[in-house]
């Protein structure tokens, strides 16, 4: 790795992308300071702790363990140096609203048998589907995720064309899955991971069938203590490398250029040679930079397709909730209306698909004895009206829906309740229209069509996080940190090793 010795860098925002970048730049010899708006590090992967209950406020699925292994290996470590993993069984449970229940387990043969119950021959079809998914994953990760092809000319290469030849690049996930499975419930099982990409079956490219390899083959894991433990691990690694962290220090303006940046904050300016923003991309450009220093204007951001926001209930309840697995999905038998109410005709879904996370099923430390900790996440359109009255009404709708479709009565056992919704995402994370995830992975917002890591208007300013490549999700943001650091090193490394 080239050296950045003598360079100072301020990283604005401490999401997983910013924390990752900070580690790579500090390892290259830079003097790195991370400034964070909120009271704790982690960005959307914050923790909520109340009265003996502990919740991951945002990401809660530990997927793609190979990405974490590679990240820590870059610094001579393993994930197990910082946290332990448990392979979940089942990976997740699905309640369909017509009374069916499906457990997806680590045992592929059991899963194939479940598929056969719905559609003769679907078990072997699943095996073929996963073979293609694995191929897409391996080729895609090596040649199109860890290698940042952010310009059109990066694709005008015979080697790139050869690697891409076997990938399912075009078409939608809906069309791709329909080519394998006829039964709508099997199609839903193969497509639910799109929620992690902030898309729908009709607007997400077929390339993302690679997520099925992540799900079925690589497995679903739980880091002891939750995703917050992963944040703690990356922060600890950064500390070992010399990164310094400031919380409760929101940035208010970015001035200057390479060698002379001044980042104004609520507690005084921070001076640095280089700046990396892990704040929401649109917020950085529209609020922290003057118009002539923006790479995109307001129209650009207004015309993007955004991933959903979410209505979240964090609940501490008396007793067990054994009907629910650690990860549980509740799906209407026809979920097209829900996606339409997110992407086409935005409104609060009247027959929602939603997710319940019950970490206390796996981890005794997240709830007091005799209690369960769970949260409920309902994807909803960003930018909707979000009022206390709407939240009250929707809370009752969701509690009734959980009782009716999973057999889990929560209402009379709740001892702790917190809510989080559109206005909170906008206020806490400065997210555009209160989106929970950022830019969705539509065909026109994938790969080189996402905003770049380098600012196109300010030398020495860089971006990292889910709005850049490779995109949304904790593993992708971890990789985004590596890609952003590579850009900084290409531009400012001195050719020697630190």
From TrEMBL:
SUPFAM superfamilies the record matches: FAD/NAD(P)-binding domain (SSF51905)
Keyword Oxidoreductase assigned: yes
Amine oxidase domain location: 16-489
Pathway(s) served: Carotenoid biosynthesis
Matching InterPro entries: Amino_oxidase, Carotenoid/retinoid_OxRdtase, FAD/NAD-bd_sf
Gene3D superfamilies: FAD/NAD(P)-binding domain
Protein name: Phytoene desaturase
């Amino acid at each position: 790795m080239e050296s950045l010795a003598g360079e100072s860098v301020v990283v604005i925002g401490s999401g997983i992308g910013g924390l990752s970048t900070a580690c790579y730049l500090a390892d290259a010899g830079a003097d790195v300071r991370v400034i964070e708006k909120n009271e704790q590090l982690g960005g959307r992967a914050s923790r909520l702790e109340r009265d003996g209950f502990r919740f991951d406020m945002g990401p809660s699925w530990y997927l793609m363990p190979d990405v974490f292994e590679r990240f820590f290996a870059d610094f001579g470590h393993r994930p197990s140096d910082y946290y332990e993993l448990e392979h979940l069984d089942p990976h997740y449970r699905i309640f369909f609203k017509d009374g069916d229940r499906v457990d997806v387990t680590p045992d592929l043969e059991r899963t194939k048998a479940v598929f056969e119950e719905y559609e003769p021959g679907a078990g072997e079809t699943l095996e073929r589907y996963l073979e293609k998914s694995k191929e897409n994953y391996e080729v895609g990760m090596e040649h199109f995720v860890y290698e940042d092809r952010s310009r059109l000319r990066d694709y005008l290469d015979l080697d790139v064309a050869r690697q891409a030849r076997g990938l399912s690049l075009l078409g939608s996930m809906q069309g791709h899955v329909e080519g394998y499975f006829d039964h709508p419930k099997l199609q839903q099982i193969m497509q639910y991971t799109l929620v992690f990409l902030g898309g729908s079956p009709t607007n997400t490219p077929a390339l993302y069938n690679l997520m099925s390899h992540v799900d079925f083959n690589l497995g679903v894991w739980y880091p002891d203590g939750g995703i917050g433990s992963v944040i703690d691990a990356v922060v600890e690694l950064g500390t070992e490398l010399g990164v310094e962290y400031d919380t409760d220090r929101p940035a208010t303006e970015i001035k200057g250029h390479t060698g002379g940046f001044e980042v104004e904050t609520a507690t005084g300016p921070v001076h640095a040679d280089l700046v990396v923003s892990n704040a929401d991309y649109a917020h950085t450009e529209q609020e922290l930079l003057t118009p002539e220093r923006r790479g995109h204007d307001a129209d650009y951001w207004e015309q993007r397709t955004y991933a959903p926001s979410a209505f979240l209930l964090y609940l501490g309840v008396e007793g067990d909730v054994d009907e629910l697995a650690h990860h549980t999905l509740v799906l209407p038998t026809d979920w097209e209306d829900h996606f339409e109410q997110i992407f086409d005709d935005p409104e609060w879904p009247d027959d929602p698909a939603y997710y319940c996370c019950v970490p206390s099923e796996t981890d005794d430390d997240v709830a007091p004895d005799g209690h369960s900790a769970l949260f409920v996440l309902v994807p909803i359109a960003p930018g909707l009206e979000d009022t206390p009255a709407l939240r009250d009404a929707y809370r009752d709708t969701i509690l009734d829906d959980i009782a009716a479709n999973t057999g889990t009565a929560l209402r009379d056992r709740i001892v702790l309740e917190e809510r989080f919704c559109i206005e909170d995402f906008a206020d806490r994370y400065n997210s555009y229209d209160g989106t929970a995830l950022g830019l969705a992975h539509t065909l026109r917002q994938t790969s080189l069509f996402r905003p770049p890591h380098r600012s196109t208007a300010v030398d020495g300013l860089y971006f990292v996080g889910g709005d850049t490549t490779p995109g949304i999700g904790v593993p992708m943001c971890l990789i985004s940190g590596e890609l952003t650091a590579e850009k900084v090193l290409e531009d400012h490394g001195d050719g020697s090793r630190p």
